[in-house]
Protein backbone atom coordinates (compact mmCIF):
# COMPACT_ATOMS: atom_id res chain seq x y z
CA UNK A 1 0.00 0.00 0.00
CA UNK A 2 2.87 2.35 0.85
CA UNK A 3 4.43 1.75 -2.60
CA UNK A 4 1.13 2.62 -4.30
CA UNK A 5 0.91 5.89 -2.37
CA UNK A 6 4.49 6.83 -3.32
CA UNK A 7 3.79 5.97 -6.96
CA UNK A 8 0.56 8.03 -6.92
CA UNK A 9 2.34 11.06 -5.41
CA UNK A 10 5.19 10.77 -7.92
CA UNK A 11 2.76 10.62 -10.86
CA UNK A 12 0.77 13.58 -9.51
CA UNK A 13 3.94 15.65 -9.17
CA UNK A 14 5.09 14.68 -12.66
CA UNK A 15 1.76 15.56 -14.26
CA UNK A 16 1.40 18.87 -12.43
CA UNK A 17 4.91 19.91 -13.47
CA UNK A 18 3.99 19.33 -17.15
CA UNK A 19 1.10 21.82 -17.23
CA UNK A 20 1.84 24.18 -20.09
CA UNK A 21 0.90 27.84 -19.69
CA UNK A 22 2.34 30.53 -21.98
CA UNK A 23 0.41 33.43 -20.38
CA UNK A 24 3.43 35.39 -19.17
CA UNK A 25 5.65 35.11 -22.25
CA UNK A 26 7.29 38.18 -23.74
CA UNK A 27 8.34 38.06 -27.38
CA UNK A 28 11.28 39.92 -28.92
CA UNK A 29 11.91 40.53 -32.61
CA UNK A 30 14.82 38.49 -33.93
CA UNK A 31 17.85 40.33 -35.29
CA UNK A 32 18.01 41.03 -39.03
CA UNK A 33 20.47 38.38 -40.18
CA UNK A 34 21.44 36.80 -43.51
CA UNK A 35 23.07 33.55 -42.44
CA UNK A 36 20.24 31.00 -42.33
CA UNK A 37 19.39 31.47 -38.63
CA UNK A 38 15.81 30.27 -39.36
CA UNK A 39 14.12 33.22 -37.66
CA UNK A 40 10.94 35.18 -38.38
CA UNK A 41 9.14 38.10 -36.75
CA UNK A 42 7.28 41.37 -37.25
CA UNK A 43 5.22 44.00 -35.47
CA UNK A 44 1.50 43.20 -35.59
CA UNK A 45 -0.01 46.64 -35.09
CA UNK A 46 2.23 47.54 -32.11
CA UNK A 47 2.89 44.10 -30.59
CA UNK A 48 5.77 41.74 -31.38
CA UNK A 49 4.89 38.57 -33.30
CA UNK A 50 7.33 35.68 -33.67
CA UNK A 51 6.85 32.03 -34.50
CA UNK A 52 6.41 29.92 -31.35
CA UNK A 53 5.12 26.50 -30.32
CA UNK A 54 3.84 23.84 -32.69
CA UNK A 55 0.64 23.05 -34.51
CA UNK A 56 -0.16 19.46 -33.59
CA UNK A 57 -2.64 17.02 -35.03
CA UNK A 58 -3.72 14.70 -32.16
CA UNK A 59 -5.54 12.21 -34.35
CA UNK A 60 -2.87 12.19 -37.06
CA UNK A 61 -0.10 11.68 -34.51
CA UNK A 62 2.27 14.51 -35.27
CA UNK A 63 3.22 18.17 -35.23
CA UNK A 64 4.63 20.49 -37.87
CA UNK A 65 7.50 22.95 -37.60
CA UNK A 66 6.44 26.49 -36.73
CA UNK A 67 8.53 28.01 -39.56
CA UNK A 68 8.78 26.71 -43.12
CA UNK A 69 10.38 28.30 -46.16
CA UNK A 70 9.97 26.81 -49.62
CA UNK A 71 11.37 27.62 -53.03
CA UNK A 72 9.88 26.01 -56.12
CA UNK A 73 12.49 26.42 -58.90
CA UNK A 74 10.20 24.96 -61.56
CA UNK A 75 7.80 27.91 -61.40
CA UNK A 76 9.80 30.46 -59.36
CA UNK A 77 7.43 30.55 -56.39
CA UNK A 78 8.53 31.38 -52.84
CA UNK A 79 6.48 30.59 -49.73
CA UNK A 80 7.10 31.26 -46.02
CA UNK A 81 4.69 29.95 -43.38
CA UNK A 82 4.98 30.69 -39.64
CA UNK A 83 2.84 29.58 -36.69
CA UNK A 84 2.39 30.85 -33.16
CA UNK A 85 0.58 28.54 -30.72
CA UNK A 86 0.01 29.55 -27.10
CA UNK A 87 -1.26 27.30 -24.31
CA UNK A 88 -3.16 28.15 -21.16
CA UNK A 89 -3.77 25.57 -18.41
CA UNK A 90 -2.39 22.79 -20.61
CA UNK A 91 -4.84 23.45 -23.47
CA UNK A 92 -4.14 25.47 -26.61
CA UNK A 93 -5.61 28.92 -26.18
CA UNK A 94 -4.65 30.74 -29.38
CA UNK A 95 -3.27 29.65 -32.72
CA UNK A 96 -1.98 32.16 -35.28
CA UNK A 97 -0.57 31.62 -38.74
CA UNK A 98 0.91 33.87 -41.40
CA UNK A 99 1.80 32.91 -44.94
CA UNK A 100 3.81 35.03 -47.40
CA UNK A 101 3.90 34.07 -51.09
CA UNK A 102 5.71 35.42 -54.13
CA UNK A 103 4.38 33.83 -57.29
CA UNK A 104 5.87 33.31 -60.77
CA UNK A 105 7.79 36.58 -60.83
CA UNK A 106 10.61 35.77 -58.41
CA UNK A 107 13.83 37.43 -59.61
CA UNK A 108 16.11 36.75 -56.64
CA UNK A 109 17.26 39.49 -54.29
CA UNK A 110 15.32 42.74 -54.73
CA UNK A 111 12.11 44.57 -53.88
CA UNK A 112 8.68 43.10 -54.64
CA UNK A 113 5.56 45.17 -54.15
CA UNK A 114 1.86 45.05 -54.95
CA UNK A 115 2.27 48.71 -55.98
CA UNK A 116 4.48 47.59 -58.89
CA UNK A 117 2.12 44.72 -59.76
CA UNK A 118 4.29 41.94 -58.34
CA UNK A 119 2.21 38.88 -57.45
CA UNK A 120 2.19 38.74 -53.66
CA UNK A 121 -0.19 36.78 -51.46
CA UNK A 122 -0.39 37.26 -47.69
CA UNK A 123 -2.79 35.58 -45.26
CA UNK A 124 -2.92 35.96 -41.48
CA UNK A 125 -5.30 33.85 -39.41
CA UNK A 126 -6.14 33.94 -35.71
CA UNK A 127 -8.01 31.26 -33.76
CA UNK A 128 -8.92 31.53 -30.09
CA UNK A 129 -10.62 28.85 -28.04
CA UNK A 130 -14.41 29.31 -28.00
CA UNK A 131 -14.23 32.35 -30.33
CA UNK A 132 -14.91 32.74 -34.08
CA UNK A 133 -11.80 32.49 -36.27
CA UNK A 134 -10.47 35.62 -37.96
CA UNK A 135 -8.70 35.75 -41.31
CA UNK A 136 -6.97 38.77 -42.83
CA UNK A 137 -5.51 39.18 -46.30
CA UNK A 138 -4.76 41.79 -48.94
CA UNK A 139 -7.65 43.92 -50.08
CA UNK A 140 -8.62 43.17 -53.68
CA UNK A 141 -9.37 46.84 -54.37
CA UNK A 142 -6.22 48.38 -52.87
CA UNK A 143 -3.56 45.83 -51.92
CA UNK A 144 -0.49 47.32 -50.23
CA UNK A 145 2.37 44.98 -49.30
CA UNK A 146 6.13 44.93 -49.87
CA UNK A 147 8.64 42.12 -49.54
CA UNK A 148 12.35 42.87 -49.87
CA UNK A 149 14.59 39.86 -50.46
CA UNK A 150 17.97 40.93 -49.08
CA UNK A 151 19.72 37.62 -49.77
CA UNK A 152 18.80 34.53 -51.74
CA UNK A 153 21.22 31.60 -51.93
CA UNK A 154 19.79 28.51 -53.65
CA UNK A 155 23.04 26.58 -53.08
CA UNK A 156 22.89 26.85 -49.27
CA UNK A 157 19.07 26.94 -49.41
CA UNK A 158 18.75 30.15 -47.38
CA UNK A 159 16.79 33.35 -47.90
CA UNK A 160 16.51 36.51 -45.83
CA UNK A 161 14.47 39.66 -46.16
CA UNK A 162 12.01 42.19 -44.80
CA UNK A 163 8.28 42.81 -45.25
CA UNK A 164 5.46 45.21 -44.39
CA UNK A 165 1.90 46.04 -45.39
CA UNK A 166 -1.75 46.16 -44.42
CA UNK A 167 -4.28 43.32 -44.35
CA UNK A 168 -8.07 43.44 -44.05
CA UNK A 169 -10.45 41.03 -42.34
CA UNK A 170 -12.39 38.57 -44.45
CA UNK A 171 -16.08 39.29 -43.98
CA UNK A 172 -17.36 35.72 -44.33
CA UNK A 173 -16.26 32.22 -45.28
CA UNK A 174 -18.59 32.36 -48.30
CA UNK A 175 -16.64 35.08 -50.13
CA UNK A 176 -13.26 36.76 -50.37
CA UNK A 177 -14.72 40.21 -49.69
CA UNK A 178 -12.90 42.16 -47.00
CA UNK A 179 -13.95 44.74 -44.46
CA UNK A 180 -13.03 48.34 -45.24
CA UNK A 181 -12.42 49.18 -41.57
CA UNK A 182 -11.22 46.04 -39.74
CA UNK A 183 -7.53 45.82 -40.61
CA UNK A 184 -4.11 44.97 -39.19
CA UNK A 185 -0.78 46.61 -39.94
CA UNK A 186 2.32 44.48 -40.35
CA UNK A 187 5.58 46.40 -40.05
CA UNK A 188 9.30 45.86 -39.40
CA UNK A 189 9.00 42.25 -40.62
CA UNK A 190 12.15 40.20 -41.02
CA UNK A 191 13.06 36.62 -41.87
CA UNK A 192 16.18 34.52 -42.30
CA UNK A 193 14.92 31.09 -43.31
CA UNK A 194 16.29 27.78 -44.47
CA UNK A 195 14.46 26.65 -47.60
CA UNK A 196 13.12 23.20 -48.39
Entry keywords:
13 strands, 53% strand, mainly beta, 8% helix, 1 helix, 196 residues, two-stranded antiparallel ribbon, globular, eleven-stranded antiparallel beta sheet
Question: What's the helix and strand layout?
Answer:
Blueprint: H1 2-17, E1 39-44, E2 47-50, E3 55-57, E4 62-64, E5 67-72, E6 77-88, E7 91-102, E8 110-113, E9 120-128, E10 134-137, E11 144-153, E12 158-170, E13 178-194
Antiparallel strand pairs: 1-2, 1-13, 3-4, 5-6, 6-7, 7-9, 8-11, 9-10, 10-12, 11-12, 12-13
Provide a concise account of the structure shown.
With 196 residues, the chain is mainly beta. The chain is built from 1 helix and 13 strands. It has one helix spanning 2-17, and strands spanning 39-44, 47-50, 55-57, 62-64, 67-72, 77-88, 91-102, 110-113, 120-128, 134-137, 144-153, 158-170, 178-194.
How would you characterize this protein structure?
By secondary structure, the chain is mainly beta. The protein has one domain (23-194). 8% of the residues lie in helices and 53% in strands. The protein is built from one helix and 13 strands. The strands form two sheets. Strands 1, 2, 5, 6, 7, 8, 9, 10, 11, 12 and 13 form an eleven-stranded antiparallel sheet that branches. The chain starts with a helix and ends with a strand. The model is unreliable at 4-17 (pLDDT under 50).
Amino acid sequence: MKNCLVLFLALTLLLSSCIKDDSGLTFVLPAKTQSGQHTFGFLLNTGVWTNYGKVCFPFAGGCRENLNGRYYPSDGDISITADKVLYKNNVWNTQENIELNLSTNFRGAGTYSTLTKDTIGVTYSFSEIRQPDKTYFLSASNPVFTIVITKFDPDSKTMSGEFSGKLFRRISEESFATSTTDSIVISDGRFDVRLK
